[in-house]
Amino acid sequence: MKKPYPLFVLLLSMLALFSSTAYRLAETGYQVGDTASDIRLKNVNGQMVSLRDQKDAKGFIVTFTCNTCPYAKLYEDRLIQLHQKYASKGYPVIAINPNDVTASPDDSYADMQKRAKDKKFPFVYLHDETQEVAKRYGATRTPHVYVLTKSGQDLKVSYIGAIDDNSGDPAKVQKRYVEAAIDNLLSGKAVQQASTKAIGCTIKWRNNS
Asked: β-pairing, 154-161 with 144-151?
């Protein structure tokens, strides 16, 4: 009987690690209806950003994304459109890159600055260097969206999941999950579809995550 190829064994081990991490975070992270804590992360312009500092916001489209994932790149223009449509209505996009730089060198802070400049991001693009925010939220993919709504002094999780139902072709999108959720909220209604499955690349965790 032939012994398994070392590379094959390594790939299986990595897959098991990613699956275990994703399951653990999904179990311990935020669920719809939970109260989210504030964040304080560095933006690509060097300034620290906190959600509670944005007094005029009614909520936020918190999106875990990155420079390198093909899915994240496919959704960049749609994130720009979401921000342009909803920031003035009180729901700005808050983009967060949680990828470990050792595992994904092109997700460095310098590369984030370049990406934001090249794409002319109208929203903040924050560096979750310690990955603590992604862990707290339970994010597992890029992109992975959490729509937060202000309720008094609290930030309530109103939607978790994908941006829409077609990552590959925006012209073929049938269901715009994030837009529908925010339209419900702006109308004073409960979100009709409060969770979907996030589709994208796995977040690149540190070895000790």
From this structure: antiparallel
